[in-house]
Design goal:
globular; alpha/beta; single chain; 198 residues; 7 helices; 6-stranded parallel sheet
Amino acid sequence: MSAEKTIGLLGGSFNPVHTGHMILASFLSQYAGLDEVWLLLSPLNPLKPNPDELLPDMTRLRMLEIATRNAKGIDVCDIELSMPRPSYTINTLRLLSNRYPRRRFKLIIGSDNWKNFDKWRESQSIIDDFGVIIYPRPGYPVGRIFVDNVDVASAPQCEISSSFIRSGLARGKDMNFFLPPGVYDYIRKNHLYERKNQ
């Protein structure tokens, strides 16, 4: 049997996926002791502000598939789309572990989320049973963390955001260099994120 692989799970709405996501995932897959990083697509949350800004699940999934088709060490995970909602990270990790017994999963979160991680459902179980990798986010410095099974990755910080991309697209800006190859073409071909007529 093949040796166990360690997979990092990087969750998000990916609305849309952009080069910042890909740079982070690539860095972590190569420098954080992981065999692969899976981009975990979060389903539409009707309780979030401005849910109408979020494209349908399958559209965002298609953009992820385009972004990762030639990406070494990066894959897409859509398991939460078929889980009961709201979906909790601990349930996702347990389901993935059951489904892929030869994989070891670790959660990847930004330093902004680490500040409130103790409020996550069964946060200690996530740490104890799976492990957490923290990457830096602008404005949320990470000092030394003395918690077993929690690591800090000195990943490059990228201030590109999905909201910046959406705003640029709505204003007719050329966002080609901010998006993974093929994603910009897909967005333009399908008229995504264009400003709606008032």
